[in-house]
Amino acid sequence: MSLVFFSAGEVSGDLSASEVIKLLMNDGVRCVGVGGRHMEKAGMINITNSDETLTSSVGFSESIKFVFPKLKLLNSVVNYLKQEKPDVVVLVDNQGFNLQLAKECKKLGIKTFYYFPPMVSVWGENTKYKVAKYCDKILCTFESDYKVYREVSENAIYVGNPLVERIRDNYSSKHNYLKDFRENTKKILLLPGSRQQEINNLLPVFLDTVSYMIKENPELEFYVVVSHPAFSGKVNSEILKRKLDGYVKVYLNNMDYALYDVADVVVASSGTTILEMAVMKKPTIVTYIVSPITYMIG
User: Fold this and answer.
1) pTM greater than the 0.90 cutoff
2) What is the CATH number of the domain that holds 11?
3) Whole domain around residue 267: which residue ranges?
């Protein structure tokens, strides 16, 4: 039986990897790796028994506290790869960790595929050379990335983006949720992110804005979709602190895009969600907050 090792470290990557894992499991391929709850639900054996999406971060100072845990994780993964020798390692996004892992896989002579490779427009020109050097296949989900990676590697392949199919295949009916709202109101969806730092930084600003807006316009209705069960306590606490429990509905992300379709307007943390909302043709206000140090570094 073939053995494929997966590495993802963000909610979006966890979800994208899970879709591939389902297909491979149906063909009898054994899948192991590190990632999150979606990958485990799809059938992957998590070698650490921990959810790596909960330690995802963006920014310089924001990432410092995770340096040693990530180094420990990298060491654990490398030791596992040495012992088990999988047929292929599939890296999914999460370039900070996965580029280091790709380098180690190259040393071990293990075939490595990169699905959702780093966007060169974001991470710089040097990134494409690293990915081309360490990876046997570069599976690009954006045509612009494919053109960039094709310049430095004949192993770059344009595989398309799974978002359209994902939304189509995970959509029930928005009438399942409209019953929770009043008729003839404007419904505003709040998506404060899938990382702890985003919840901590953006959610208070979102809710303070809600407090102001409901005084100005009582015909507005607000709801939050929480990306991970681990954030539910924080979200509910911030809502109660502002006495907004009667004004802001809370849903746990259940992978039903009909819930998003209820919204007239979306206020969201920058990330994969923005692309999803664009596919769904939802007017979206894009937000993000980083530390002053990260901001100054640019």
Assistant:
1) yes
2) 3.40.50.2000
3) 175-295
